[in-house]
Amino acid sequence: MLFKQKGILFVLSGPSGVGKGTVRKALFKKDTSLKYSTSMTTRPMRPGEKEGVDYFYRSKEAFEEMIKNNQLLEHAEYVGNYYGTPREYVEKQLDEGNDVFLEIEVQGALQVKENFPEGVFIFLSPPSLEELKNRIISRGTETETLVMNRLNAAKEEIDMMDAYDYVVVNDQVDHAVENVQAIVKSEHCKRERVATEYKKILEVSQS
C-alpha cells in the first residue's frame, strides 16, 4: 500500500483591498495542482457561466436546507442572494488528495474555522494601513466615505489576526506567493499529518 497524504484546506483571508484575489491567481499560475473552492449561490446563472465551475447554483429553499443541516463551511447573504462554501465538495477534494484553496473575507474565514478547524488559515496583511488606503483609492471605485469605512473595518480585521495560523505580508505579489507556497510545503511535512497516514499503512501491512 503506497503512502498517499490527504489534501489540506488552505484559507486565504484578509482585509478588503489587501490583494487576496491577485495573490491567489498568481499562486494558481505557479501551482496548477491546487484546487480552487467553488462556491454555492442562489443567484441566477449568468450567460457564459457553468454549473460547478463558476458556482454551484441552488434554489433559496435548497440553500436554507443546507444551512439547517450544517452542509456549508460558511455562508453569507449579499444583495438578497446567499453565497457559501459546500462542505461535501471540499471534503471530496481533500479525500482525493487535492489541496483546496478558499479565498474569503475575514468573517467568512472565522465561520470556516468554527466548522472546519483542521484547515490552515493564512492572513494576508498589507505592509501598512497607508498602503492599504492607497490600494483602495487606486481602484477608483470608492467614495472618500467608503474608503474610510473600509480602513476602519481593516483595523478591526487586523485585530483578528490571532485566529490565524500564519501571516503573510503582501508587500510584493511574487514575494507573498513564495511565502504561501512555503506554508503549503511545510504543512505537508508536519509530523502529525504524515504520521497519521503513515501509521494507517503500517497497520494494514501488519494485518
From TrEMBL:
HAMAP family for this protein: Guanylate_kinase
Domain of life: Bacteria
NCBIfam families documented for this protein: guanyl_kin (TIGR03263)
Keyword tRNA-binding: no
Subcellular location as annotated: Cytoplasm
Name listed for the protein in its UniProt record: Guanylate kinase
Residues covered by the Guanylate kinase-like domain: 7-185
Family label: Belongs to the guanylate kinase family.
This enzyme's EC code(s): 2.7.4.8
InterPro entries: GK/Ca_channel_bsu, Guanylate_kin-like_dom, Guanylate_kinase, Guanylate_kinase_CS, P-loop_NTPase
SMART domains for this protein: GuKc
Primary enzyme class: transferase
Keywords in alphabetical order: ATP-binding, Cytoplasm, Kinase, Nucleotide-binding, Transferase
